[in-house]
Amino acid sequence: MSTAAANLASLLRASSIDDHEEVLKAANAAIKASKSDLEAQHTRVVALLKLDRFEDALRAIAEGGDKLEQECIVEKTYALYKSGQLSDATKVLESAPLSSRALRHLAAQVAYRAEHFQDAAALYHELSAEGEGRPGEENDLRINTLAANAQLEWNGLGNLVDEKERQPAGEDLEAFETAYNAACACVARGDLGKASFLLKRARDLCEAGEDLSEDEKKAELLPIMVQHVYVLARLGKETEAAALQKAITVSEIPEAPTRAVAQHNQMTVGADARNPFLTQRLMQSATSLSGNDVLFEIQASVLRRNRHALDLQTQKFRGVASSTSTLISKIAAPTASTEIAGLGVINAASHARLEAGKTAITQILPMLEKRPTDVGLLLTIIQLYVQTKNLNPALSLLETFLKRLETASTPDHADVRFAPGLVAIVVALYRLQGRQNSILTELAKASAHWRSNQKESATSLLREAGVQLLKSSNSDDLASAGATFESLVSSSRHDTTAIAGLVASFATSDYTKVEPYLQKLTPVERLTAGTDIHGLLDSGVASVANTASQSKKRAAEAEPERTAKRRRKRKLPKDYVEGRQPDPERWLPLRDRSTYRPKGKKGKKRAQDATQGGAVKEEETLELVGGAGAVKVEKATAGGNKKKKKNKK
């Protein structure tokens, strides 16, 4: 027993990173000689972790008993984390005090992988504030903090990120890891131009690095290139994205999640000109993920939507409708989840068979009666109405849905009622109709709700609501704006927009609330420096036409400006003789003048038939047969012309 222990001790003193198998053999020999040797058991666990045999390490910890488990908290947590058992790893961390720095690092990593990004960011900030780490640890903390911030941005929690950390700093451009993570945060915020620049910077830094081998450079470059393909495609640079995608060898990507994303990029870039049935076969052969090699939920949801979209293109309408309906039916109450709302949109598209316009509205509108709480279906119908320029039914549907939520007493219904996305849609529809008072009423109600039920995701809504309410001349709206900015400032004293709004709200009514924040704002003198005030005053105030009061009819074409017409000189007749009396019948028509004589044979006969001075026609009355009445006819003359009929032979 002593010999095995001595051999193990000597081996540990002389061990390097390449002889973990020898350490494991010596530890097993020592344990075989003495099963109660705690040091040998601990050494075996570490050696198994070094060899990436995580399941074996967990089994060894369980066989060692409670004493070994208490001593190997870090090792057990790490093994659970690497084997994908995140819930069990979290339970171990909750039962143990996070006293050691290594355990807090591990806790932050477990929280990050379990998508508890807020907890991960808090732990990284705490470790950075202590500043007592090993050489190089500060750079690792910076890299991991940027990664946690990027994930917060992706999940709509960017308001939790400090304003100073949201924009890339100069030090982030000095290493390819920090430049890459800063680029990911820009992608999440939608700042794709800056993200493309940072990704190119990360590639250049990685290729120029001297402390990496060629294989290590290739392994680090591939994820950067995969992300850059996505950014270029989003920017509409399809040619550049396709060229960069061809430079990526998917099979050489070591990480399974990155390899799966690269395969989907390969299928989606230039997919418009590709056979959807062939693309579907490629998607079915994509890398399958399991264990710890799984995508984050935000990535997995995008890939699920890609699969549904491809199924629609291949006309699998019934299958898509059935699968999405099953998932939607599991959510009884209305929800503002983007994942569930996206399923509602896909389900509507499957029922409409990818039709649009009035045809699609006719097909999917009856579905709203069966699923009145489906936010995705509702928004799809509203979008179709807006596309057909029919705003009234769109707004009517949305208002009915919102009133139904208001009547419910549960807090979840109220949160959905005043979800920032729904509030933004109803405000946009009101603005299209020029209903400014309705906009202010909606924003005031939303602000009151989120001030009493503070959630970080509603910060942007509160900020915009305060700005709009501040423009009103109504005292109630101004009071609501002031309360909104007070709530924002209390939660974040670095929000310059909220501070400026607070000052503007109470500058004329309550100076005591304004005074503590005046030093944090830019002085007016600096803002107006270089402005010609007298010139502006002399120019006057520009008046802007109220677009809401304008008619919706098509404006008439502008008429050309009429010029003053010159009066023509009055001309006299050619036969005019000065002093001669003009014809008194010159204003009568020719046929009514006394000098009028009809021309031609027909005219002479017409003159003879006239009653004045002409022959009077004789008439006689003939009785009809049967006493049916009588008619007057012209009396025949004695010498009338009679033509004999020729007999036909």
UniProtKB/TrEMBL annotation:
Does the keyword Ribonucleoprotein feature in the UniProt annotation?
yes
Q: Where found, per UniProt? A: Cytoplasm; Endoplasmic reticulum
> Which residues does the UniProt record annotate as the domain Signal recognition particle SRP72 subunit RNA-binding?
550-598
**Annotated GO MF terms:** 7S RNA binding; ribosome binding
- A Pfam cross-reference name: SRP72
Which is a GO BP term held by this UniProt record?
SRP-dependent cotranslational protein targeting to membrane
| Main subcellular location of this protein, as a coarse class | cytoplasm
Task: Enumerate the Gene3D superfamilies for this protein.
Answer: Tetratricopeptide repeat domain (1.25.40.10)
> Where is composition skewed (Basic and acidic residues) in this entry?
554-563, 573-595
* Keyword set, alphabetical order: Cytoplasm, Endoplasmic reticulum, Ribonucleoprotein, Signal recognition particle
Q: Basic residues bias located where?
A: 596-605
Disordered: annotated segments? 545-649
Query: Gene Ontology cellular component?
Result: endoplasmic reticulum; signal recognition particle, endoplasmic reticulum targeting
Q: Its family?
A: Belongs to the SRP72 family.
Q: What does this protein do?
A: Component of the signal recognition particle (SRP) complex, a ribonucleoprotein complex that mediates the cotranslational targeting of secretory and membrane proteins to the endoplasmic reticulum (ER).
Q: What is this protein called?
A: Signal recognition particle subunit SRP72
